[in-house]
Amino acid sequence: MDFRKQAPPPTPVTIRGADVEIVEDYRYLGVHLDCKLDWTKNTNAIFKKGQSRLFLLRRLRSFNVGRKLLTMFYHSVLESVVFFAAVCWGSGVKIADANRLNKLIRRAGSVLGVRLENLEEVSERRMLKKLLSIMDNPSHPCTPIEAHAAKDSLPRNAGNPLYRWQ
């Protein structure tokens, strides 16, 4: 016998007189959004796409394509898939999912013969860049007056991708 209380169903959301349907997950612009903000389904889709692109990168290397062209292929084809909307999901992803994506990035780095930025570095840099762009825009609804004072207190090199928060 189960003695747990069952949560009441959420009240329906209405926008302009129309009820909004409640769904478990939704795909919007290629990003899988979950009702509990669990990014595992999104990470699985990214990993699957990334593996197929990594295969193409390896095939190019087997044809003795130059490193500059391989790097260009990585940035345009593989990196764009892996880091798409990382500002949205990058900090909320589970450690196991982040490790899977970082492993994919490390494999691509070994194909290229260079060390590539991992998921945490890229998402942190992009989130900081987004934050600074919001703070620079006085008409943005998320920019209170105090934000401009807070921006002045940030380190000068905070926008630099080589800068790491301590």
Automatic annotation (TrEMBL):
Alphabetized InterPro entries for the sequence: AlkB_hom8_N
Coiled coil residues, start to end: none
Alkylated DNA repair protein AlkB homologue 8 N-terminal domain segment(s): 39-80
Keyword Membrane: yes
Keyword Transmembrane helix: yes
Alphabetical UniProt keywords: Membrane, Transmembrane, Transmembrane helix
Transmembrane segments: 69-92
Domain of life of the organism encoding this protein: Eukaryota
GO molecular function: 2-oxoglutarate-dependent dioxygenase activity; methyltransferase activity
Name of the protein this chain belongs to: Alkylated DNA repair protein AlkB homologue 8 N-terminal domain-containing protein
Gene: Nfu_g_1_025535
